Amino acid sequence: MPKILITGASGFVGSWLVREALGRRLEVYAGIRASSSKALLTDPQINFAILDFEDDAALAKLLKKEQFDFIIHNAGVTRAQNNKDYFRVNVDYTVKLAKLAQEEIGTILKKFIFISSIEAYGSADGTPENVINNNIEPSPRTTYGQSKLRAERALAEVDGLPLMVLRPTAVFGPGERDLFAFWQTVKRYRVTPVVGNKKIKYTFVYVKDLVRVVLDATLSDIKHKSYFVSDGRIHKMQDYLANIASSLDIKPFSFTIPYVALDTASLVTGIFDKITGKKSLLNAEQIAKAKAQNWDCDISNLVDDFDYQSKYSLKEAVEETTQWYLKEGWL
User: Fold this and answer.
1) Measured between alpha carbons, how far is 107 from 265 in angstroms, rounded to an integer?
2) Ramachandran region of residue 249, left (φ > 0), alpha (ψ -120 to 50) or beta?
3) Residue 229 is inside which H or E element, if any?
4) Using CA of residue 11, residue 16, residue 20, residue 25, what is the dihedral sign?
5) H or E element in which residue 212 lies
6) Which residues are CB-neighbours of 253 under 8 A, at least 6 positions away?
7) What is the DSSP letter of 153?
8) How many other CB atoms sit within 10 Å of the CB of residue 304?
9) What is the pLDDT along the chain (331 residues), one digit of tens a residue?
10) Within 46-169, where are the H helices?
């Protein structure tokens, strides 16, 4: 039975990757920290691997002992209090794992999948074809995106690594906590606020679609390619929010938040950031990200190589997500 290590397994996407890998009859090792919760990892078939990226010897020992056939490196930080943490975790730890895997596993390792992000390339604003693809010059709008891009480039320099890079757009589904804020806002305040321009082109991917194609890619013979992942459609934020409201049986009040309001708020949080030395969630680079007008991405190579197609409409995915939130008492 092929053996797979999935890092960041205790989180939202990671736990779904574990479920999908178990369904593919793989011997699954959930890579977690010693302090990680196992609340989303209850299947008795799961093996646990405690990962300490500050302990090179322990990490090397684990890799040498288990001789994984596949590694999906999903661990990373999407929010950090300072820029150094983004690069330490998303770049340094990633490269360390890849190099140790090459040293300790060698040719037994069939695939090293790096879960990057669409943010590594930035938006489609000003691109020649008005779409994000592998041919454009990356222009990340956030430090997080910069760290993911740097990690991609560093991994490409690891000699002999059977690398594949996947860049999901905004991922949602049962257990997700960031976009969950939309559900909370709609339910609590019965409103569907849209930031800035209502014509902004957004892209999303339902977590079940994402993990399915990640495992398809992992188990394929294809290497040294990179892919963007979305549901293949362009969405307006008001439609996304309207689906959330409908799934909650709510008739909301819709309104637009002008960019000037965000700019003013970021000025205030910027002052506190300088005082505290920490980064607020509403900061200048997040405002720049919010002002992007086009997040359309080209998934044609994903379709060609893996016959990928989203199995869920936005309405179906949102409805299923809402029911999970209600069942689990999140709403």
Assistant:
1) 52
2) left
3) strand 225-229
4) positive
5) helix 207-218
6) 190, 191, 192
7) H
8) 9
9) 999 999 999 999 999 999 999 999 999 999 999 999 999 999 999 999 999 999 999 999 999 999 999 999 999 999 887 889 999 999 999 999 999 999 999 999 999 999 999 999 999 999 999 999 999 999 999 999 999 999 999 999 999 999 999 999 999 999 999 999 999 999 999 999 998 888 999 999 999 999 999 999 999 999 999 999 999 999 999 999 999 999 999 999 998 988 887 777 667 666 666 665 666 666 777 888 888 999 999 999 999 999 999 999 999 999 999 999 999 999 9
10) 56-66, 83-87, 94-104, 143-155
Domains and CATH numbers, the chain: 3-169+205-232+296-310 (3.40.50.720)
What is the 8-class DSSP label of residue 62?
H
Residues 6+ apart with CB under 8 A from 243: 314, 315, 318, 319
Pairing of strands 70-73, 3-7: parallel
Distance from C-alpha of 51 to C-alpha of 8, rounded to nearest angstrom: 9
Tally of helices (H runs) and strands (E runs) in the chain: 12, 11
Query: What are the structure tokens assigned to 17, written together?
Result: 């990757």
- Give the tokens for residue 8: 């960041």
Tokens of 135: 């041919």
Laid out side by side, the sheet with 70-73 consists of 47-50, 27-32, 3-7, 70-73, 111-115, 163-168, 225-229
In whole angstroms, give the CA distance from residue 225 to residue 205. Answer: 20
* Three-state DSSP class for residue 71: strand
Q: Under a CB-based contact definition with an 8 Å cutoff, are residues 180 and 213 in contact? A: no
What is the three-class DSSP state of 95? helix
How many CB atoms are closer than 10 A to CB 75?
A: 23
Compute the chain's Rg from CA coordinates: 20
- The residue length of the chain stands at 331
